[in-house]
Amino acid sequence: MIKNILKCGNYRIIFRLSLFGIFFLSAFNLSAQTKGNASNNKKNIDTTKLKQLSEGLHGYISMNLPKQKDGFGYGVSFYVSAWPLLEKPLSDFQIGLPGTWISPDNRGFEEPLCPVGTYARDNWPQRGPSYRDVFQTIEGSLGFWGSTQFGSTTAKFRMNGTANCYNGEISSPGWGFGRTRPLEGDQMGIAQLSNHILVPPDGLTFKKGTSGELMGYAWMALPIVSAQAKQNGNAPSGNQSWTCFLNAENFKGPVAFYIPRVWSRIADKYPTAEGRTLDTREGNVGSGAIEINTVPRFEAKDAKGIVYTKIPRLQFPVNENGVTVLMQDATIYSKDAIFQPSEKWFDGGNNTSGKFDADASFIPECTTRPTSYDQGPNATKISGVDAYFQETMIGKSSYGLKWKKESTKGMQYFPEYFRKEGDHMVAISATEVPDETNLKGQKFASAKRGKPYTSPTEKGTVWNSPGPKAGPFKATLSDGSVVTYYWYKFIDQPSLQSLKLSDAEKNAIQQRVEWIHTNWTSDKEYIAPPSQGKLATMDNAIIVNPPKGFEKGYVPVVTRQEAGK
Predict the structure, then answer these.
(1) Closest CA to 135 of 159, 158, 110
(2) What is the distance, to the nearest Å, from the Cα of residue 84 to the centroid of all Cα atoms in its chain?
(3) CB 150 within 8 A of CB 561
(4) Which of 186, 201, 353 is CA-nearest to residue 259?
(5) Measuring CA to CA, which of 69, 93, 400, 443 is 20 to 30 A from 224?
(6) What is the largest CA-CA distance in the chain?
(7) For position 187, what pLDDT does the model report?
(8) Cα–Cα dist 422/415, whole Å
(9) Would you put residue 425 in left (φ > 0), alpha (ψ -120 to 50) or beta?
(10) What is the b/e burial string over 156-191, where b = at least 16 CB atoms within 10 angstroms of the residue's CB?
(11) Residue 486 in contact with residue 471, Cβ under 8 Å?
């Protein structure tokens, strides 16, 4: 799951890192050997391959947000840096960069929102009695994930959410997080909204060479799909379509949204949850984090039995002030920012530009949080990291790392080596690692090409009934993968077919989307510009233009992603 999310005030940026390896050093008796033989033995030690292990480093770098103001639960936006955390993609590696975590605001409600039989209720009793923090969430971020099928040096962007207490997760218009097989029609929950950007299931890609530029994104409630009354045993649904907006150099605007019905489904057979879901309640920005939970490590002992460990070199871009910007300009919004103007527009009033109203926004006064680190299966505490950097505020709601040494080519590096001292692991430099441990010569396994994301081709599925109007088209992305996509009439796309909408409902939704396509073009401003820094550029391959005759009311839906030749 992605909980790599912004938490200004409850915004936490989490760094979890893991390390791999144990080394068994053979004793060499050199006294009866020649100098040449000694050199050969040394060469053998240097090339000995150690086994990779996990659970190398866990920790939290956090920024706190004061209690969310009442009425400001209709959206959140911020900017995050995009960069290559590693020099090349590695296998068994997962780090999520700052993102969002929005849950329905059920503060004060103490009844169990998760029914028995759901993953959270059955496995996380510590989240009780209400389970409100793991009931429903909108998550997602830039990052690197173990489930990535097509590794990329630069981070990718993935949206993600759970509507049913982590029984399942939805991360694109067709697929769940970490799954290459598509979701069933009644499990889908994200609708493609933009007619100018693709949403590959493996994540949105950036221009090669991106390193420290900023991508802005927001989750905003919009009234795209109308409320639905209780019928045929289904719980009623609200009219909040939580929509992802991006702000990059070559694309701006809404990308996709969560269908309201995906949230209300859990209440069909569980009345306690009725009216408590994200389609009806304000969103509570409850947690934010960089989350690292799968990073390889090596481990070895020297001749004295002292333990040393190594993790991949994690690199961080720094600006002219020696600061890594993690996230900045965190802002939360009331109903008047875009929901209310859109609602009036859809009901026959004047059209709205789509730009978030600054008078309906709130910039929180954030603070840093003390950090701690540990590594290994026994969560051994780590010390010495503070000699490298310190957490620092770089604005009222902006946060980063202030490095204590001069940078190398605009990059700084998280400690790569550690030594066991008493009951702690201490961060050390490479020069302090004995050659006999053979750690410095170890290479971590590179990422391998994964499986293709597929969709059904047989007749009678939501993918081809009613089906697309144009295609197939193909695009080769900066991660080397190839996506296949088709152009669907918006209301005919696969994720909307399980709603069983009436013709009148379909026509109303289709008309709203055509208005959005006409007025909210991808060259306009929606999120306020960053207070500092340059915008990142999305991969040009995922920026598309509709075919002639499909300029409004049609959307590109990815149906397959596979390795390129």
Answers:
(1) 110
(2) 15
(3) yes
(4) 186
(5) 69
(6) 95
(7) 94
(8) 19
(9) beta
(10) bbbbbbbbbbbbbbbbbbbbbbbbbebbebebbbbb
(11) yes
Residue in the structure block whose two tokens are 């993690």? 326
The rounded distance, in Å, linking the Cα atoms of 365 and 198 is 35
Q: What pairs with residue 79 in β-bridges?
A: 216, 328
Cα–Cα distance measured from residue 483 to residue 485, given in angstroms and rounded to the nearest whole number: 6
Beta strands 283-285 and 323-333 are unpaired
Count CB neighbours of 240 within 10 A: 27
**CB contact at 8 A, 345 and 515:** yes
Place of tokens 């039989």: 117
d(CA 285, CA 74): 10
How far is the C-alpha of 96 from the C-alpha of 290, rounded, in Å?
Answer: 5
Listed in sequence order, the DSSP H helices in 250-379 are 260-264, 339-346
The whole-number pLDDT of residue 47 equals: 55
Tell me, what's the pLDDT at 369? 80
Within 8 A by CB and 6+ apart from 257, the residues are 190, 191, 193, 222, 224, 241, 242, 243, 244
Q: Is there a contact between 151 and 479 (Cβ–Cβ < 8 Å)?
A: yes
Mean pLDDT by 10 residues, the chain (565 residues): 41 36 33 41 58 86 81 95 94 86 94 97 97 94 92 94 96 93 95 98 96 96 95 92 98 98 96 97 80 88 96 94 93 97 96 96 88 89 93 91 88 96 96 96 93 94 96 97 98 95 96 98 96 97 97 98 93
Sequence letter at residue 385 = V
Tell me the DSSP string of 361-378.
Answer: EE----EEEEEEEEETTT
- What's the angle, vertex CA 252, arms to CA 251 and CA 258, rounded to 5? 110
**Residue 292, SS3 per DSSP:** strand
Cα–Cα dist 96/203, whole Å:
12
> What does the alpha-carbon distance between residue 134 and residue 114 come to, in Å, rounded to a whole number?
8
Name the one residue in this structure whose structure tokens are 């009844």.
111
| Count of positions (residues) in the chain | 565
Q: Please count the other Cβ atoms lying within 10 Å of the Cβ belonging to residue 239.
A: 18
Name the residue type at position 187. Q
Q: Facing residues of 543 across strands?
A: 197
What is the per-residue pLDDT for 374?
87
Name the 3-class secondary structure at 219.
strand
